[in-house]
């Protein structure tokens, strides 16, 4: 049987930090208010486009796997904040990497985009269409944020992560997954003024407002991720106690805690980094996985469960069996261009734009 092994991993986080105290300079909020309701202390704000974040993360994943750009057969780029809709953003990553042999596609399922991209790449390797793939989850939400809206402005940040997948006959990679969507509730989490629906009003991008029904999203998130975890575990024949680590989408600490209690998971089995980055949408779960490996929470042959949800309202859960290696083969020297701007300075620029 053919599997899609994860043999490389990398992340790219913009250097500019936006703290809760920074947000309090232009919103009616405080560090205590944000922390108590979300678990977030700070988030990153990007000074470059999302393709550049994705490029750096992908280069680091390639180096971790000990591969060259020409080894890539496929690039699957998950995001909602692509530089352009045509041509696709994955082709820009191909160009930047020099991955001339790679087919390219974009995937948009909001916050689950990185995980859905992992499903796409895994399926294409298992079916024999390709032998290798780069999977990317990346986001620059700051550029479409409604910065005057406290309900959403405190939640989101920017970042990118990438995985390198390759054909293997050893049982590893994604062993089971469940994907779904509450399409009837799609309006409770949406960005209005963004897309061709608004083209006649000349609001394709930039003049956005957010619909965000917090309590309803909370309920749907718990229901969707719980359902996805149950289905995925049933497909794999495993029980909750067989899971070594749960790496959930980091949207809100209360959601994570509620899901953990519902699944009867001990705290030491749940990886959390939400306090450092907030919700980076498509990048969130993959960055959490990369950091879990880097920080030694993932051992050889670990069973990892990754539940996620996003706008749409999409939901998913993936069961991943890690391989033997948890250390990178090499490290990439590719990095973002320098910036002297702080997170608050970058956001102030965005707030001043008409």
UniProtKB/TrEMBL annotation:
<feature type="region of interest" description="ACP-binding">
    <location>
        <begin position="250"/>
        <end position="254"/>
    </location>
</feature>
<dbReference type="GO" id="GO:0044550">
    <property type="term" value="P:secondary metabolite biosynthetic process"/>
</dbReference>
<keyword id="KW-0808">Transferase</keyword>
<dbReference type="InterPro" id="IPR013747">
    <property type="entry name" value="ACP_syn_III_C"/>
</dbReference>
<feature type="active site">
    <location>
        <position position="249"/>
    </location>
</feature>
<comment type="subunit">
    <text>Homodimer.</text>
</comment>
<keyword id="KW-0275">Fatty acid biosynthesis</keyword>
<dbReference type="InterPro" id="IPR004655">
    <property type="entry name" value="FabH"/>
</dbReference>
<dbReference type="GO" id="GO:0033818">
    <property type="term" value="F:beta-ketoacyl-acyl-carrier-protein synthase III activity"/>
</dbReference>
<dbReference type="Pfam" id="PF08545">
    <property type="entry name" value="ACP_syn_III"/>
</dbReference>
<comment type="similarity">
    <text>Belongs to the thiolase-like superfamily. FabH family.</text>
</comment>
<protein>
    <recommendedName>
        <fullName>Beta-ketoacyl-[acyl-carrier-protein] synthase III</fullName>
        <ecNumber>2.3.1.180</ecNumber>
    </recommendedName>
</protein>
<feature type="active site">
    <location>
        <position position="111"/>
    </location>
</feature>
<dbReference type="InterPro" id="IPR013751">
    <property type="entry name" value="ACP_syn_III_N"/>
</dbReference>
<dbReference type="GO" id="GO:0004315">
    <property type="term" value="F:3-oxoacyl-[acyl-carrier-protein] synthase activity"/>
</dbReference>
<feature type="domain" description="Beta-ketoacyl-[acyl-carrier-protein] synthase III C-terminal">
    <location>
        <begin position="233"/>
        <end position="322"/>
    </location>
</feature>
<keyword id="KW-0444">Lipid biosynthesis</keyword>
<keyword id="KW-0511">Multifunctional enzyme</keyword>
<keyword id="KW-0012">Acyltransferase</keyword>
<keyword id="KW-0963">Cytoplasm</keyword>
<dbReference type="GO" id="GO:0005737">
    <property type="term" value="C:cytoplasm"/>
</dbReference>
<comment type="function">
    <text>Catalyzes the condensation reaction of fatty acid synthesis by the addition to an acyl acceptor of two carbons from malonyl-ACP. Catalyzes the first condensation reaction which initiates fatty acid synthesis and may therefore play a role in governing the total rate of fatty acid production. Possesses both acetoacetyl-ACP synthase and acetyl transacylase activities. Its substrate specificity determines the biosynthesis of branched-chain and/or straight-chain of fatty acids.</text>
</comment>
<dbReference type="Pfam" id="PF08541">
    <property type="entry name" value="ACP_syn_III_C"/>
</dbReference>
<dbReference type="GO" id="GO:0006633">
    <property type="term" value="P:fatty acid biosynthetic process"/>
</dbReference>
<feature type="domain" description="Beta-ketoacyl-[acyl-carrier-protein] synthase III N-terminal">
    <location>
        <begin position="105"/>
        <end position="183"/>
    </location>
</feature>
<keyword id="KW-0443">Lipid metabolism</keyword>
<comment type="pathway">
    <text>Lipid metabolism; fatty acid biosynthesis.</text>
</comment>
<keyword id="KW-0276">Fatty acid metabolism</keyword>
<dbReference type="InterPro" id="IPR016039">
    <property type="entry name" value="Thiolase-like"/>
</dbReference>
<feature type="active site">
    <location>
        <position position="279"/>
    </location>
</feature>
